[in-house]
Amino acid sequence: MLLMFEDQHKEHLSFLTQVSPDVVKEFCRISMEFIRKGTNPKIFQGAAQKLNVDVDTVHHGVEGLMYLLTESSKLMLNEIDFQDSIMTLGFDEDTRQTLLEIYLQNRREIRTILSEMTMDLPHYHNLEWRFDVQLASRSLRRQTTPTVLFKLHTEDSGVKDTTILQTDPVNLLHLTKVLDEALQEMKSPYCRRIVRNIK
Amino acid sequence: MDLSERGLTAGKLVDMKWKLGVAVCSDECKSLNSPFVAMTLKVADASGKISTHTFELTIPQFQNFSEQMKDMAARMEMI
Fold first, then answer.
1. A76 shares a domain with A135
2. Which of A85, A117, A149 marks a domain boundary?
3. Are A149 and A132 in contact (CB under 8 A)?
4. Whose CB among A56, A151, A172, B14 lies 3.0–4.6 Å from B42's, allowing a Cys bridge?
5. Annotated Gene Ontology MF terms (chain B) (predicted)?
6. Judging by DSSP bridges, how do beta strands A159-167 and B50-58 pair with one another?
7. Could you list the pLDDT tens digit for every one of the 199 residues in chain A?
8. Is the same domain home to A86 and A153?
9. Number of domains forming the structure of chain A
10. CB-neighbour burial class of residue A65 (10 A; exposed 0-12, middle 13-18, buried 19+)
11. How many Å apart are CA A65 and CA A36, to the nearest integer?
12. Looking at the domain assignment, is residue A191 inside a domain?
């Protein structure tokens, strides 16, 4: 699979064809920092002054690099595909080698960052429980009813939430039995085949 | 309709339930043995929407609460 670049991308990256491989390495390092932490326009100013070019050109160059790296990591391009894709951009041999190295070093990290941006449902964070005995209520006195109180902490894209739930011991036993059965499903031959194929 | 119901209110109490229990143990403390009172208040706001509030009180808190209620009841008698 090859990456297709639009003309605007090619134009942005054409600036990088005119500079030395060291500068390209520096730009790659800046792009990785931006992918990790977000953009910082002040860095463009410094780089633009050092290289004697427009701030906009530097800005577009870094953005073009970021796009190249994230798209290649997203599609998990292998070496040959990556090299074929950047062939059309007009880089010289050294620059292409540098880009390939940076891609291979960082693609795992970029994929981790990208995977955190996927759609998220509230997921488990922590569970606290408490075992009570109810002795009386407004409607019935002199009783001994055991209950279990849960505080379920969930997290949804960084936002934490708590839910309070109540159950009686019989239901709790049933809950644990059902969850246990779900875990046992993992050990069935069908699931084992799938897991083996994923790994 | 009573005029006081059409004016500005902070919501009306629709239902109140309580229960008394003893917390025997929890995941943080194997032998708690602390009694508590749990109350559920159902409140209807001016538009009729019912919201439920559940909270727990320890015995000292509950004693404080009931004393204040008795105080209020006594004042109401005077009015």
1. no
2. A117
3. yes
4. B14
5. NF-kappaB binding
6. unpaired
7. 777 777 777 777 777 777 777 777 888 888 888 888 877 778 778 777 877 777 787 788 788 888 888 888 888 888 888 888 888 777 778 888 888 888 888 888 888 888 877 777 888 999 999 999 999 988 888 888 899 999 999 988 778 999 999 999 999 999 999 999 999 988 888 888 888 888 7
8. no
9. 2
10. buried
11. 14
12. yes
Looking at the fold, whether A98 and A130 belong to one and the same domain comes out as: no
Q: Which of residues 21 through 60 in chain A touch B, CB cutoff 8 A?
A: none
Q: Is residue A42 domain-shared with residue A95, that is, in the same domain?
A: yes
In a domain, residue A1? The reply is no
Interacting residues of A90 by C-beta distance below 8 A, sequence separation 6+: A14, A17
Taking contacts as CB-CB distances below 8 angstroms, the residues of chain A near B36 are 132
State the residue for tokens 């004693």: B63
Supply the range of the domain harboring residue A108: 7-117
